[in-house]
Design a protein that fits this description.
By secondary structure, the protein is mainly alpha-helical. Helices cover 66% and strands 10% of the residues. It contains seven helices and two strands, in the order αααααββαα. Strands 1-2 form a two-stranded antiparallel ribbon. Helix 3 (48-60) packs across helix 6 and helix 4 crosses helix 5 (76-88). The longest helix has 22 residues, at 110-131. It is globular, with a radius of gyration of 20 Å. The chain starts with a helix and ends with a helix. The model has no long low-confidence stretch (mean pLDDT 93).
């Protein structure tokens, strides 16, 4: 739809309610989840993107920074900053790629694996708290519907 058509359509109805709009509802749900996440991970000082990077490295093993960015849906600048902060905390390390010496592979350190074990236990509680308003059957449906949007 062209921008002019969108502007024209938005002026036609007095029945527009912000609270019924998908973007607004998603933003509010995201704010709620972020607050729960921050509360649950506060002691570990992990952001959602840092946790995602650690969890995905654990899932796939040695991985390039570029591939990790794709697997976690982070743009190159974001994943670079995440990796720098995780390296500074000695949660991940680098090693040369045996197949391509120009590349390095990221991996979890002993400290990273220990912290991730605690973080995963917390993440499960965070997910439970986020989804608590929904009965168990609706949780699976909700997640399936969200996955359709991505």
């Amino acid at each position: 739809m062209k921008t002019a058509a969108i502007r024209r359509d938005s002026r036609q109805g007095d029945d527009y309610r912000l609270e019924d709009q998908v973007g607004h509802v998603l933003r509010r749900a995201h704010q709620r989840h972020t607050a729960i996440f921050q509360d649950g991970m506060d002691e570990l000082q992990l952001t959602p993107t840092q946790f995602a990077a650690l969890a995905k490295i654990s899932d796939v093993g040695d991985v390039s920074q570029n591939q990790l960015g794709r697997l976690t849906a982070m743009d190159p600048a974001t994943i670079q900053g995440v990796i720098q902060r995780l390296e500074a905390r000695k949660l991940i390390g680098r090693q040369p790629d045996p197949k391509d010496r120009r590349c390095t592979l990221l991996n979890l350190t002993v400290e990273g694996r220990a912290l991730l074990a605690d973080a995963v236990a917390r993440a499960r509680r965070i997910t439970e708290a986020t989804l608590a308003p929904l009965p168990p059957a609706e949780r699976q449906t909700f997640l399936a519907l969200l996955r359709k949007l991505i």
